[in-house]
Amino acid sequence: MRPSLQHLQECFASRHQTRENLPCFLDFEASSLSHRSYPIEVAYSLENGWVESHLIRPAGQLGWRDWSEQAEAMHGISRDLLVLGGQSPRRVAEQLNRALHGRTVYCDGGEYDRFWLTRLYQAAGLKPSFVLADCADLFECYLAPGILDKLARCARAAMHQRHRAALDVGYLQSLWQLVLAEYQRLSGVRTLPVLSV
Description:
The chain has 8 helices and 5 strands; from the N terminus they run αβββαααβαβααα. By secondary structure, it is an alpha/beta fold. The chain has a single domain (5-187), classed as Ribonuclease H-like superfamily/Ribonuclease H (Nucleotidyltransferase, domain 5, 2-Layer Sandwich), CATH 3.30.420. Strand 1 and strand 2 form a beta hairpin.
């Protein structure tokens, strides 16, 4: 039996409470990959490794009608689940702003994540209180892209195949740990560089 996501979060957080601050990561799942898509789930991590995710209810949002059954097959989130368990875009955006205020938050979805962040905050009538940055910019400060690609494949192989935002944030956390371990191995540096978050 695989451990629950909550158990993994608690273990990760407890291991890292005494370490230097970890970067914050963020990931979205969406209705599709089209230009009419909208975010349906967001997850983020805090400096201690804790991961939190929220389903986003599209009901009542103008223009949030796009849906891809192929995307649903990948992430496993149904429209019914969003209606029953999702929160309004405003509530989710307010929670993100409270949790991530003033931080740089890293994502690996590039323009897609920026687009879905914009869609979420437009629907909420708010502005993000944090900066979204690309993981590659962070990781490539420590390792060359070729080495990074190898580590990314290793980290992805260890994760579940289903795309869910919290699992994808967990993947980014795992990749960060691999990047730092490889950086230490290659550089011989025992203490990690201080992260400004």
